[in-house]
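Protocol step 4 of 6.
Sequence for FUSC family membrane protein (Larkinella insperata) entered exactly as in the expression construct, tag removed. Do not edit the line below.
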Amino acid sequence: MKRQIREVRYFLSGQHFSDGLRITLAILIPSVVFYQFGHFETGLPVSLGALWASITDAPGPVMHRRNGMLAGTLVMVLVSLITGFIRTNIWLLGLEVALFSFFFSLFAIYGNRATSVGTVGLLSMILMIDRELEPVAVWQYAALVCAGGLWYTAISLSSTQLRPYRAAQQALGECIHEISKFLLIKAEFYSVRTDLQEDYRKLVTQQAVVSEKQDAVRELLFKTRVIMKESTWTGRLLVLTFSDVVDLYEQIIAMYYDYPSIRERFGKTGVLDEIARMIRQLAIEMDYIGLAIQTNRPYKSRADLIRHLERLKTRIDEIGQQEKDNSNFVLKKILINLRNLNQRLTTIHTYLSADGKTNPKDKEAPEYSRFVSHQEIDLKLILNSLTLGSSIFRHSLRMTVACLVGFLVAKLIAYGHHSYWILLTVSVILKPAFSLTKQRNYERIIGTIAGGLIGVAVLWMAPNNTVLFWVMVALMLGAYSFQRANYIVMVILMTPYILIMLRFLGLGGISVVEERVLDTLIGCAIAFAASYLFPRWESQQLKGLLHEVLEANRNYLRKLLDSLSGKPVTITDYKLARKAVYVNSANLSAAFQRMTSEPQSKQWHRNDIHEFVVLNHILSSNIATITSAYLNAERPTVCPPEMLRPVRRALSVLNESLKSLDGEAAKTALEPPLTETSGPEKPESMIAEDSSLKEQLDFIQKLSHDISKLTDTILT
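Step 5 output, structure tokens:
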């Protein structure tokens, strides 16, 4: 029950709900105000403009949000004017549908925010098609839509000005929340009752989610001037907390052991269940810390984790005494990792209780700008993408064909008063990836039917218009809160909200529900059929993603070799290599998940790709275990050449795999020939003679060979 309560609190204090509240108020206020003065028809376009501007207001740096909203407002005004003046000519209108659907779909080349601007352009065209306005009224409509866009922009920027750190706190809290889920999945590896392959599937899927959340925090922290340029206490605290959170996540990933072996050796003792329980307690503690950061409230720990750790230590010691032939060394290593996790959580917890008078311990300051990507708006990107080799170009062609078919069907079928719903459904359902289009189709159909039934029930049961209005407000708030979080829930709530709104406009009734469902079914059918045009299957892109993952792990392994050889490795360079591994692994995992939703005949080495993802995760976990320990050591030792030989062989094997995957790309990326140098001379006492380290390095070499064999199998 406590977990459900935490989920609700996360939602109510999170970015999605605050966005939903802001959008709802920005849409409602103009219509309600103008209604009070008897000009409701004037307030509707203003509310519509506010709605469109909100689409471009995705979380991110203030400057990017401002530019996105202003660009969206400009696009909606221009498209409304063009559509309003040519809509009387069916041929010109059809030409506009074809050109605009292609042109605005190309915006995806410039990233998600530009994609939302293109979506605004399509929506403003679609909703203007059936408006019968005189030339003067077209100018008035465009002016009102512009006023709505500027109105929403002013509200959004004002709220940011009043609470400049709120978005970063919410993003950081959500990131910690997802990492706690990752840790909960890790706990399942110590249970003899779960399937390890299923555990790995969940783990790599959640890793993609965590990577997305970390990127969102980086964008907000490292591209926000008030946080990075001003020496404010809150800003520094957020940056330090995020840095520790990423290090904490690395430590969780580095907690890799031979799970089949420890299950076989210690499964009957019951200690693994105690370890899993301890990990879950740490995950819950982390979840509460994330919630405290997101709600911007102090948090006092209610769990005595140290006492639980001591109890676990006693249990491990008892096993060591009872089963002398069955060494408990691996259990002690697990205990040390759990203690380190608890220590990191304690450090993050101290930041929450800091009063601003005592500065937290400073670390090496990384060059934060190197951790975020920079998207340039260059016309050459579009020109270079006008080829069938570009997935965005293929998607733009699909969108053009689908919108033209939807437009023709809407004009040929004279059913109801909202034929634009067909074109609207096509534009929001059709996505660049086949699997996403398939999923959206399913969610749209189920959501529309369920929402239609709810809408009919509400219209039938509501005693008066006042009750209907407040029900509509609640549905609006829910729909706009879930629009970026859960599409099917958004559709379920959006459908009755639209039906109630049409009732207030005098267009309600069962016939509207039937029209809504029919138009949705037609639009979904067109979008799904179009997804088979010029397809770009995920299997066609997997080879490049496999190459990127191998290259990232190869560079990560190079940092391990440098640190063991005594060569200087800066914290920034190490963290950049670590980030590349996380991001590329997440991209491969996400692409693999999308491929599993594609037709069976289009899936490529499904089981082998899954094994590849798992092996690379294990490889990066083992690299992180050793490298982070060496970089954090006060006096790192230098390994002799013979101990480094497995690492050098692993690097050579990964290089060969890169050649196999993509010869030309790999040739330019290959490292210089590996020579067996041991780095600068060190005293004999500092030379590492650790048999455990030797075993880990041998295991890394074995993993590299397994990955190489698997790569050859995939390419066969």
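Step 6, annotate. Residues 664-689 have pLDDT under 50 and may be disordered.
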